[in-house]
Prior knowledge:
The chain has 146 residues and is mainly alpha-helical. It has one domain (9-144). It has helices spanning 16-49, 55-75, 81-85, 100-115, 119-122, 133-138; strands at residues 5-6, 12-13, 88-91, 141-144. The strands form 2 sheets. It has a two-stranded antiparallel ribbon. Helix 1 packs across helix 2 and helix 2 (55-75) crosses helix 4. The longest helix has 34 residues, at 16-49.
Amino acid sequence: MIQNKLDAAGHRLPGLRRRLAAMTYESLLVLGVLSVAFMIPHVALGLGFEIVLPGYVLFAHFFLVLGAYFIWYWSHGGQTLAMQTWKLQISSPSGATPTLPTLVLRYVLAWPSIMFYGAGLIWSFFDRDRQFLHDRLAGTRVIMKP
């Protein structure tokens, strides 16, 4: 049986495969969220009123919809739906639920961490606790749910 690494507070840390599998599953769930909260309103505006919003408005709406999804779930139990399936949880290094400003910071930092060719994800290969760069910078960590 493979032993999971423990952090300084004694929490089990998930492996990279489990975290990437959860991210893949999360992308499928987010597709449904975006279909309802992003695509439907913009298609209705286009078909009903022949309005096409500028790109920066579309990106801002996209960013806010995803932010609302992730931050709401992280602040209510530390898990999104995919994280519940894979038994992962966001926590502070002490094991407590991170504060709302910390979760917002994590969300904002995750964008460049992932968008710059996954550099923030590759960081986990070199991190002593296998954390992604945005977790390290935000002061959060992903642990195995007890």
